[in-house]
Amino acid sequence: MRNQQVLIDSLPQGKLSAGNYRLAETEIAAPKAGEVLVKTTAFAITAGTRAGLQGSASYAGAPTTGVVMNSTGVGEVIDSTVEAFSVGDAVVAPTGWQTLSLHEARALTKIDPAHNPVDYLGPMGVNGLTAYFGLLQIGKPKAGETVMVSAAAGSVGHLVGQMARIKGCRVVGVMGSDAKADVLLGQLGFDAAVNYKDANYRQLLKDATPDGVDVYFDNTGGMILGSALFRMNVAGRIACCGVVSQYDTDSPEPGPRGIPGLLVNKRLTMQGFLLFDFVEQYAEARQQIHSWMQAGDLISLTDEVKGLEAAPEGFVDLLAGGNVGTRIVRV
Amino acid sequence: MRNQQVLIDSLPQGKLSAGNYRLAETEIAAPKAGEVLVKTTAFAITAGTRAGLQGSASYAGAPTTGVVMNSTGVGEVIDSTVEAFSVGDAVVAPTGWQTLSLHEARALTKIDPAHNPVDYLGPMGVNGLTAYFGLLQIGKPKAGETVMVSAAAGSVGHLVGQMARIKGCRVVGVMGSDAKADVLLGQLGFDAAVNYKDANYRQLLKDATPDGVDVYFDNTGGMILGSALFRMNVAGRIACCGVVSQYDTDSPEPGPRGIPGLLVNKRLTMQGFLLFDFVEQYAEARQQIHSWMQAGDLISLTDEVKGLEAAPEGFVDLLAGGNVGTRIVRV
User: Fold this and answer.
1) Inter-chain CB proximity B277 and A267 less than 8 Å
2) Which of B221, B264, B277 sits opposite A241 (nearest CB)?
């Protein structure tokens, strides 16, 4: 069968462009014993995969060209040599940016027909689980505390803010446009939303956090992390989830001033985490997230791009802050 | 009675100099009801007090001129209106840089005659307790792990390294002279000592930490913190105790590169702490430290300066790395 793919054609020098990718068409073999053939229906584009194009200083490993761009997707089993998976099953898989892919059974997660498969790219998937464990187990918010989150309208951020609200916290989102602020305040129940591109950003952040910040969920690093350090309360927690401000460049900034000085003065804890450290608690977390969704407390925002060939532009635009919620490519 | 004092005459612009201080002689009153008059026998000079001359971004509060330079000291009660303290008692007190001082009883700690009073400026005092809680409760080293400490020959660092050795860790000290390295290796049982002024510092650090670093006790911030980040193992802990590299300047560096990126990739925890958060555990810690000293496992190095008037030069020299162990001014 013919497989449409988007390959990494060259590694970005400076900012990523759509020209760093190329379309390809190849023949995909029938599944060998133990393999399952999946037809992609949609995949997610996440900022973290930009780090995978960045060289060895990333958890994504060293970058390569000529390979399919990686991503998590959802799809349908169209051929299977494995008893556990039947033709027609909906699955989550590391599909990459392509229409067809072969997987060993252990790489697949079956999606309960009661669920919308696309939720497994958002709240029930990597983004939702990252928000859940980063906020609850690293940030440890208590009711009545103030939680600040950066990239607050992003795939992880918009879920973090809602989970903090569910936990009884005051929620302050930082994002890069007033249209995003409207979504956070109007649809997702954030208490305040501050635009980091505003010339008065620092003052606006101060006004939005009259009782300081107890938990900062950091998706960006850089200047916004620096601003959070100055608003943190004594014994505050910073959950370090990602560094989107530094991904799309080949000259990352130094760390913010005040590290480690402000960490000492305010007895702050900064802790980095990766989702797969929590793998044994995924099922429990998914159950909790699902019940929040059922109750209408947690809303999943998705931002769809149509067609495989639109993925590169969709990624470039995402890195420039163009998305609201989880960006999904419908194949 | 006449009281000899060292006053802060001006706030340093850039580096501290002895000229920022002046000697003064004033009359001290007899103790009022509830007060105790203490004659200073010795006081400690610690790098952290430099932060108190630095403006508001410090736990030491906003700086003032015309006041006595602060410090912890030991002394003898020479007049008392309080039943709990009698003439001749040895006490620890916030004496400051002066020969006489008046205190409320609650500011004083009586020294057991079984102890050498000066130990209360080192291992049994602020430095020892800081090393103890920072290493054990923030760094949480396990036997067999590698512990790295900066300012390793300093008042806190030389105790941290020995405590880590007692806990069964491989101990790597970073300091600024080969003479200090000799002390760490020859007298204190460090496994390795690396001079950060060496042109090959990064390579030497790598060679000294073949299994990476599990716990980094950071007294310096700056470049040495940056170097530690690259040597940290997954799930490592960084105890942020002080920022001596940034105290003696009015233009502190930005934070090291790799924050927060390396914190995420390696799931590191950086945690700042201040000693007084552990006040309820001081007695227990002092008992443990005392028994290590009795057993000969923990050696206290002191570095004495003679006479009150020598304190300013002693402080300037300490900030330039001139001390080995706890710098004490004998009055």
Assistant:
1) yes
2) B264
Residue position matching structure tokens 């620096």: A226
The whole-angstrom separation of Cα A118 and Cα A100 is: 17
Interatomic CA distance for residues B321 and A188, integer angstroms: 54
pLDDT confidence band for A247 (50 / 70 / 90): confident
Q: Give the ranges where A53-125 is alpha helix by DSSP (H).
A: none
Would you call the peptide bond into A312 cis, given omega within 30 degrees of 0 as the criterion? no
The token duo for A127 is: 């983004």
Chain B residue with minimum CA distance to A273: B267
| A126-276 CATH | 3.40.50.720
Put simply, whether B268 touches A (Cβ < 8 Å) is: yes
Q: Is the pLDDT of residue A60 over 60?
A: no
Looking at the partner chain, which of B241, B261, B267 has a beta carbon nearest the beta carbon of A264?
B241
Contacts of B246 in chain A (CB under 8 A): 261
Instruction: Provide the pLDDT confidence category of residue A55 given band limits of 50, 70 and 90.
Output: low
Residue A132 confidence (pLDDT): 98
A254 contacts in B (CB within 8 Å)?
A: 253-257
Nearest C-alpha in B relative to A277: B267
- Contacts of residue A238, Cβ cutoff 8 Å, sequence gap at least 6: A215, A216, A218, A225, A228, A232, A268, A269, A270, A271, B260
Matching fold, domains A2-122+300-330 and A126-276:
no
pLDDT in tens, A146-201: 999 999 999 999 999 999 999 999 999 999 999 999 999 999 999 999 999 999 99
CA atoms of A93 and A112, how far apart (whole Å): 14
Q: Answer whether B264 sits within 8 Å of A257, measured CB to CB.
A: no
Task: Please state the domain extents for chain B.
Answer: 2-122+301-330, 126-276
Can you tell me which residue has the tokens 């008392």? B80
The pLDDT, as a whole number, for residue B61 is 59
Does A272 reach chain B within 8 Å, measured CB to CB? Answer: yes
ipTM above 0.90, yes or no: no
- B263 contacts chain A (CB < 8 A): yes
What distance in Å separates the CA atoms of residue A181 and residue A201, rounded to the nearest whole number? Answer: 13
CA distance B144 to B138: 17
Cβ within 8 Å, pair B271-A267: yes
Q: Which two tokens stand for residue A80?
A: 């299977």
Q: Report the DSSP beta bridge partners of residue A80.
A: A36
Predicted structure pTM score? 0.90
Architecture of domain B2-122+301-330: Alpha-Beta Complex (3.90)
> What residues form DSSP beta bridges with B93?
B73
B62 at interface of A, judged by CB pairs closer than 8 A: no
Is the CB of B271 less than 8 angstroms away from the CB of A274?
A: no
Among residues B253, B248, B317, the alpha carbon closest in space to that of B50 is found at: B248
Backbone angles phi, psi at B38, to 5 degrees: -120, 135
The alpha carbon of residue B230 is apart from the nearest alpha carbon of chain A, in Å, by: 10
Residue B107 φ then ψ, to 5°: -85, -5
Q: What is the DSSP letter of B255?
A: B
Of A218, A254, A260, the CB nearest to B218: A260
Residue B151, chain A, CB below 8 Å: the answer is no
**Cα–Cα distance for residue pair A140/A314, rounded to 1 Å:** 34
Flag if A261 and B218 touch (Cβ within 8 Å).
no
B201 touches chain A (CB under 8 A): no
Separation between Cα atoms, residue B20 and residue B26, nearest integer Å: 19
| DSSP SS3 for A182 | helix
- Kindly indicate whether the domain formed by A2-122+300-330 is annotated with CATH number 3.30.310.50: no
- pLDDT tens digit string along B150-178? 999 999 999 999 999 999 999 999 999 99
